[in-house]
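Hi P.,

Sorry for the delay on this. The queue was packed all week, but I finally got your sequence through. Input first:
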Amino acid sequence: MLDREKSAKEWDFGGLDYMNHGGYGACPRAVRDYQQKERNAFLKNPMEYFMFDYPKKTEENRLFWASFMKADPEGVVHMECATLAANTVLKSLALRGYFKTGDEILITSHGYNACNNSAREIAALTGAVVTVAEIPFPIEGPGQVTDAVLKAATGKTRLAIIDHVTSETGLVFPVTDIVKGLKAKGVETLVDGAHAPAQVSVDIGAIGSAFYTGNGHKWLCAAPGCAFLYVREDFRDLIRPLSLSHGANDPNPAVSSFLKNFAWVGSRDATPWTTPKLAHDTLAAMHHGGMAGIKADNHALCAQGYKLFLEALKLKPHAPVSMIGTMASVILPVGDAGKLRAALRARNFVTQLGALSPQFGQGRFLRICAAPYNTMAQYERMAEALLQELAAEKKAA
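Then the structure:
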């Protein structure tokens, strides 16, 4: 069992009820202190750091990502964020002629807007067309996702971009089934797993997608600027970083060309890339069941909170509990999302509350998150505050 009161001491929100871990994550004290120490060493003596500490520590954490995500380590490289990774894949494929006029890039109606924008940009540059798999929300089950995606794929579809865990709606998609079904139709997949690491279990080898990316700064609680990209072996000759590595022509035969291309893409603060393993170990130590225990406890709390808000708002479930991990979205009545979010902030709650995307209908959405520092008592207080603010809105209308 996770002692949430004890775990909360690893974070410091200045007395605020921080309810939006899914937005930008939040580093525990151990990670913050470690990164600051690393950053001081880097800034004090960049030459020493880049020549000795950087190669060793970033390689250790690159191999951690491969192990934690169950991926071939020869296909895993560091990235600053999942959006950059998706851009890297799309632009590499475009530059090497993968997309032709009339080809289709398939996205979903739940896709992350930045990645969807990148798909549209590449389509405009190459003559390809972006198509959308319309997935309902509220939703009854994962089969609706798989069916919608496979139905939207055609003989012209070259690549599908599928979220593992959606950002706005907080749904866990059945990516293994989707990737398998698309592959049978000759379609490759880029899985956007920005929210997946440490929220759900990930086995990239079993998923089988051509590309997979995930963030470390969200549910793993590593430092912002920490993410990874996995590229399957048959695509590694096509994928290059947006800035080609200084070491791309390194003659060392023991290192693959793919890894050389990403090894040294410019001077930067690489300290975030040294934090994922420490973040994992810090979280795992909070529960007798390790990381699996953390994920299970956070899921259980999220499910409780989800039920609480649905009952408080007199709503039917928007999705089955089996389709949520450690965050879930609740649809609120039509109104000013920014004003309501500010009203909750004035009551001490930092939360994600925005205008519902048009494809899901009218209204606003409130995203519920469950991190190791959150408690049921926080949900209860926020639900009460939300009801009061909605009542005040109705009265003022």
